[in-house]
Amino acid sequence: MGNVAVIGGGAAGMMAAVAAAGSGHRVRIYEKNEKLGKKLYITGKGRCNLTNACGTEEMLAKIVRNGKFLYSSFYGFSNRDMMAFMEENGCPVKVERGDRVFPVSDKSSDVIRVFSRKLETLGAECCFRKEVEDIRVSDGRVTGVVLKEGKKFVAADCVVVATGGISYPVTGSTGDGYRFAKRLGHTVTKLAPALVPFEVKELDVARSLQGLSLRNVQVRVLKGKKVLYEDFGEMLFTHFGVSGPVILSASSYVADPLEKGELVLSIDLKPALDYDQLDKRILRDFEKRKNRQYKNALDDLLPSKIIPVMIERSRIQEEKAVNEITRGERRQLVETVKDFRMTVTGMRGYEEAIVTRGGVSVKEVNPATMESKLVKGLYFAGEVLDVDGITGGFNLQAAWSTGFVAGSSAAAGV
Q: What is the pLDDT of residues 341-387, one digit of tens each?
């Protein structure tokens, strides 16, 4: 029986520990927090979007950086395997819009409870409030870990680094894994917040619309005339700019260009209608309200909160009777609805980022086993790797899959 040390009790760490303990080895999770899954607990607003039910090839396509690296792990432990794992261990799941998978209970605590029970059943030991300070290596092979408290050395045949990134640092994600990796000769690529809200120049507009959530809108991010990102979904106005699923996903694609200068966010508020169809729709609305003023004629078309902004941007006098509005003015309104623009000036920081972009270079990790190519018996799993995807359960599936492969491989390598 071998000893496997798992550093980090988040999604990847818990799965790695389950996989390793399931092979009959002595497994210890070292977790600096007082409980497992602290970051997992707050994901999906506490509901835990634990995976996505789409096909594996589509899932790989949703990984923004280094998707090919996850090919073996996504097929080795798939989203279907994860859903079956939850069901078999007493946590039924459901599929919602966008193929997002949640526990039926809508409680992330139920997901964590599944792992707590499973680890206990398999005899894995969870060492809470135990921070690992260093990983010891001799002759190119892992020998164990050094705990911060008392500088105590604990022997281990294999070590799985599942420390997460540096997003949501209050949950304990403080970049320890990057430090370990660098010290052992690994390359850590440039780190940045990912899946993070945008800050905009038009703060007066954002603040006047604060709290307004828009569904089924088409969002494009432009640099000049070049479209950097385009998708359909939900977004939210905030006191600093914009957020919501479609914005968070956009952030992963436009981070580099944004570092070089401002970008344009174009929102199509009525993507189901083309310009002519929208013009006819507005004409019908105006016909119904032909004796009203313009400012009182847009209730059926737009949420009330955005109407004053649209009136201003369409440059039509708010007191004007709708039966006096010209075809040209109506066209201005159509343009405003189909191309509502804001200037993106930057992104929020790690405190609001869902994941970290960058990490341990995947060129130095075996994709079939998650073992380091530089140090025998050293494995990496989850967000610590230079892999990140868009919102919708893809990052958590990457954590489950790489965690399972790392834990299984560590157990086989003991």
A: 999 999 999 888 889 999 999 999 999 999 999 999 999 999 999 99
d(CA 120, CA 98): 34
Q: How many CA atoms lie within 13 A of 51 on its CB side?
A: 28
| Mean pLDDT of all residues belonging to the chain | 95
DSSP, residue by residue, 186-243: --BPPPEEES-PEEES-HHHHHHTTT-EEEEEEEEEEETTEEEEEEEEEEEE-SSEEE
Residues in contact with 79: Cβ distance below 8 Å, sequence separation at least 6, in sequence order: 51, 52, 53, 54, 56, 59, 101, 393, 397
The rounded radius of gyration (Å) of the Cα atoms in the chain is 25
Among positive and negative, which fits the CA dihedral 51, 253, 226, 315?
Answer: positive
Position of tokens 């939850």? 86
In 238-387, DSSP assigns E strands to: 241-243, 263-268, 340-347, 355-357, 378-380
Mean per-residue pLDDT, 78-86: 98
Residue 370 · residue 12 · CB < 8 Å: no
With a cut of 80, say whether residue 414 has pLDDT above it.
no
Closest by CA to 21, choosing from 378, 380, 408, is 408
Looking only at Cα atoms, what is the longest distance across the chain?
86
Residue with tokens 């993070």: 196
Could you tell me the end-to-end alpha-carbon distance of the chain, in angstroms, rounded to an integer?
Answer: 8
Cα angle 374, 378, 383 (rounded to 5 degrees) comes to 100
Per the listing, tokens 């990912």 go with: 194
Total Cβ atoms within 10 A of residue 225: 6
Fold that domain 3-193+354-413 belongs to in CATH: FAD/NAD(P)-binding domain (3.50.50)
CATH topology of domain 197-348: Helicase, Ruva Protein; domain 3 (1.10.8)
Q: Are 159 and 371 in contact (CB under 8 A)?
A: no
Yes or no: say if 48 and 38 are a contact pair by the CB < 8 Å rule: no
Residues 6+ apart with CB under 8 A from 273: 281
- Kindly report the pTM of this predicted structure: 0.91
Q: What is the domain partition of the chain in residue ranges?
A: 3-193+354-413, 197-348
Res. 290 pLDDT band, cuts 50 70 90: confident
Q: What pLDDT is recorded for position 174?
A: 80
- Strand partners of residue 360: 188, 385
